[in-house]
Amino acid sequence: MQIVLVPGLWLNASTWDAVVPELEAAGHTAHPLTLPGMASKDADRSAVGLADHVGAVVEALDAAYDAGGGEQVLLVSHSAGCGIAHAATDARPDKVGRQVHIGGFPGDDGDPLLSGLPAENGEVAMPDWKEMGEDANVRDFSDEQLTQFYADAIPVPERVISEPVRLHDERRWDVPATEICPEYTAADLKEWVDGGHLAELASIKEKDYVDLGGGHWPQLTQPKALAQAILDAAR
């Protein structure tokens, strides 16, 4: 199976480095993405918006679908990247066999991917999660790993997280989803969905919920366990 891997904010294709070998050892072909402006801290991202990131995922879906001889693609995404990937599914609902959302959810039409983080010169730097009271996000990093994680984080183009998500094709709700739950539980997520807080996710007709545990970045802190969860979804 062709598997497209979409990073979350402040990350690029390298976030999947420890996951890809596990997927390929199982016989799949993995396509980890670096979205526009996210190649490095020095990359020019001054003109990059949400549509550019969605378009890059759509392009990758088209290429993976063709490479697989017309077999539907497994589309894996992390954190706010889940909103980007879901918008790409909206654009290509016939080419995605299943979505896997890791620590994130689809965004609702008309809403931004993320709000409330300060921007400087058109970019949003990764915040200190502990200072924000989000200790659960980074609870399974060692001190050394966390220092390196912050050092490697790439600022996100402000427009990517501030521009509204646009969804058009209700066939996106027919694409089944696997919700992998790291710093929150499957029971938590079901409660949020049932409580009407995640309308787009609630509209997806077939959903599986998988507890993983740990912090928000399992591709870095527990890649083998995450890879197994992705392989289970691929089956």
Your description of this structure?
The strands form two sheets. A six-stranded parallel β-sheet has the order 2-1-3-4-7-8, with helices on both faces. Strands 5-6 form a two-stranded antiparallel ribbon. With 235 residues, it is of the alpha/beta class. 34% of the residues lie in helices and 15% in strands. The chain has one domain (2-234): 3-Layer(aba) Sandwich (Rossmann fold), CATH 3.40.50.1820. The protein is globular. The mean pLDDT is 97. The protein has helices at 20-25, 50-67, 81-91, 143-152, 158-162, 186-194, 199-203, 218-221, 223-234, and strands spanning 2-6, 29-32, 73-78, 96-102, 123-124, 156-157, 177-181, 207-211. It is built from nine helices and eight strands.
Produce a short descriptive summary.
With 235 residues, this protein is of the alpha/beta class.
How are the secondary structure elements laid out?
Elements: E1 2-6, H1 20-25, E2 29-32, H2 50-67, E3 73-78, H3 81-91, E4 96-102, E5 123-124, H4 143-152, E6 156-157, H5 158-162, E7 177-181, H6 186-194, H7 199-203, E8 207-211, H8 218-221, H9 223-234
Parallel strand pairs: 1-2, 1-3, 3-4, 4-7, 7-8
Antiparallel strand pairs: 5-6
Helix pairs in contact: 2-3
